[in-house]
Amino acid sequence: MPYNAGFMCGFGLTGSAWTCDGVPLSAIAAAVGTPAYVYSAATIRDRLGAFSAGFASYPHAIHYALKANSNLAVVRVVRAAGGLVDANSGGEIDVALRAGYAPGDIVLTGVGKTPAEIDRAVALGVKAINAESSGELDRIAAVARARQTIARVALRVNPDVAADSHPHISTGLSTHKFGVPIGAARAIARQAGARGELAFVGLHVHVASQMLGLEPLRQAAAAVVGLARELRDDHVTVEHVDLGGGLGIAYDGEPVPSADQYAAALIEVVRPSGLTLVVEPGRAIVGAAGALLTSVVDVKPQSGGKWFVVLDAGMSELMRPALYGAYHRIVLVEPRATDPVSCDVVGPICESSDVFGVDRRLPLPAVGAVVAVLDAGAYGSAMASNYNRHALPVEVMVDAGAWRVVRRRQTIDDQLVCEE
Length: 420
Ligand SMILES: *Cc1c(COP(=O)(O)O)cnc(C)c1O
Hints:
Elements (H helix, E strand, L loop, with lengths): L10 E4 L2 E4 L2 E2 H8 L3 E5 H15 L4 E6 L6 H9 L3 E4 L2 H9 L7 E3 L6 H10 L3 E4 L2 H13 L4 E8 L21 E2 H12 L4 E7 L10 H19 L6 E3 L16 H12 L5 E4 L3 H4 L3 E12 L5 E5 L8 H5 L5 E3 L7 E7 L8 E9 L6 E4 L20 E6 L2 E6 L4 H5 L4
Parallel strand pairs: 4-20, 5-6, 5-13, 6-7, 7-8, 8-9, 9-10, 9-11, 11-12, 12-13, 15-17
Antiparallel strand pairs: 1-2, 2-3, 4-14, 14-15, 14-19, 16-19, 17-18, 20-21
The structure holds pyridoxal-5'-phosphate.
């Protein structure tokens, strides 16, 4: 399989059935039911290892972006493999702490940090709070003063770089809500650097997600390295530049830069500054490490010889297709030998956008057949909801040839426990 080129783990066709690290997906579905997320621990380790190897020649830190997938078991695999974390909320900080991370392992990002989130991050003493505005720097400083401590902060800069990704996951244009404009950053950073309650430790940038080219990342890196140089002239010295996440994965076999190429491109820009290089990959670590198993609940003809294949999972379990028009490969975990037909693969939710794939060529599956939606490890479970009162799916980790449930399926009592 070209998708798995470069690492000998993950999801693939082994003989006549799809497997995860050698375990048949049909066996997992039979045991735990569907919908179910299945993760490959080996793939997570492999991807993290590829990033570590890529950056090995230069001082660096890899902070896995928890928002991609913060299942505790996933986070524990990341931690055991040496990855640090990027949290986007107080909830993600709590998950990181429960997974065993120390505050110094955590950077906190987020365009709208609440007073409670700022207070918690300052009290814990996280490695860096990536501040989004001068107002937020004021609020962080006020908390630090009240707590008689010094808060470590970085400034998120909006480099005004076009990322060539989907508009909903591009963040680095001046019209986007993230960070402070590059033109205003020097003055804001200089002020922050002069405050006794703040240790100004870094500059932060994140231009987009699912990027398939390195040029926007190079441009963003050059912008913050240039800013760091200007700040040095102003006698404000930072420890690191945090270049965010954003490296894409091959959802449809498209060419994607390797972790080595990605690291080499960033190191080339940052090396002359001598600054430590921080990155926050999310999707590139866990995207290919997960699949959503779902069962066919109905098959019905539509006009023009096409078929609807209706699944027991939809946008409530995996929102990316409905939200971004995202493409995911869809396969029968036990492929049939019949000729493929054209299928619209749809979910059961009462929304016309609840479609996983249009015009997919599949052997017409039988009702009850299990289908795997591949490359669903990132922004899959993390974005799942109770819409239509669907239960959050069961999640399974495959590790070293064995598998275990790492989140049980939600019950209706779980859903109603917070309601009157
Ligand atoms: C979403 C996000 C990431 C992770 O992005 P990926 O595309 O999953 O690598 C990293 N940093 C920040 C600030 C983010 O918002």
